């Protein structure tokens, strides 16, 4: 597995943070002005941002839970079998539902519904109807359509997401990778719960390209909270006590954090703590 570089980590982390506010200027992060599409959820709120430039691969940013409805959906911890053709086992129903929900069109000028890439822009494609009633595309269908067009232009996809967005990124990446092998370059998630059951972990194809970043004792990274039922995938990178650890088991993480908390009053007496605060004198 290749090492995740610092500038990559910072870039993806900032994009995940900036995906939450409604206002988002993607050009400030090196993407071309016309190279962006947003996919909305059933309420018309942006759930995925697809960003690219002529010189870079595409970055797909999945937003985490941002409404009461999302949090309630996350609580539905029952197995959902992915379509048989994918042979990818069972995933968390709530996260899969958010990917398969029908998108409602928003006023966002970058909205991706019923659009496909053409050269440097997106153009309208035909809408489907049933008895005169408009039928929308699902979040996953729109994402797949954009992924196919970007791939046709020689671009690979980097998926990143925070919290439940990380789980959606993992599940969507597995589905799209099976349909288009080699299209997924990397998956980087932050504070992500476990996305699926053992059957999903066992069949997941992107372990070597998936980085799951956890910070200290972030409780969400231990959810849904059913040991040996829900499983994480990929490589775990744990940020703790000014160090980086890899693939540390959950019980060890908890023990180390508890020890760190108990030792904190004594640790603050060490000289290295004082040296690290040297910058304070330049600021006052």
TrEMBL record:
Superkingdom of the source species: Bacteria
One BP term from GO: lipid metabolic process
Organism name: Veronia nyctiphanis
Biological classification of the source: Bacteria, Pseudomonadati, Pseudomonadota, Gammaproteobacteria, Vibrionales
Pfam families, per the entry: Lipase_3
Fungal lipase-type domain location: 59-225
Protein name, entry field: Lipase
